[in-house]
Amino acid sequence: MHSSRQNLLRILAHKSFRLGDFKLSSGGTSDYYVDCRTTTLDAKGSRLTGEVFLEEIWKQGWKPQAIGGLTMGADPIVVAVAVVSGDLHGFLVRKAEKQQAVPTSRRPQPQRSLFLFSPHRTFAPNTSCKMTKPRHTVIEIESD
Prior knowledge:
By secondary structure, this protein is α/β, with parallel strands linked by helices. The protein has one domain (4-13, 21-143): Rossmann fold, CATH 3.40.50. It is built from 4 helices and 7 strands, in the order αββααβαββββ. It has helices at residues 4-16, 37-40, 43-59, 75-85, and strands at 17-23, 29-34, 66-70, 89-93, 113-117, 127-130, 137-143. α1 crosses α3 (43-59) and α3 packs across α4 (75-85).
């Protein structure tokens, strides 16, 4: 029997990995491209993504109450992990606050341990964050 990680890698190789000449958003070029969205938005790929991320969170000994990341890229991963876990809540962070934002009084103000995966340090509006280990971070958020 294959592990969730091995099955996910098979789907990524089949659906997401492409050889060719690609111009990257950074302006550089590459002879291969991995579009993970084709895997994370696939029914089986989504389930496996949730399982693999959740296994890694547990393996690290983290016990978050929520998982999140930057929208749009993190959306399918956040949902997959939340659904597979059955009890982790999901959240998404925008790079900039939406102009027609929900009034502050209606925004959720979590006071819990959160797992945030991001290549950048991200701070949610109206919160103070203590962050460690950029890229995969367990943070404590306290409302101001």
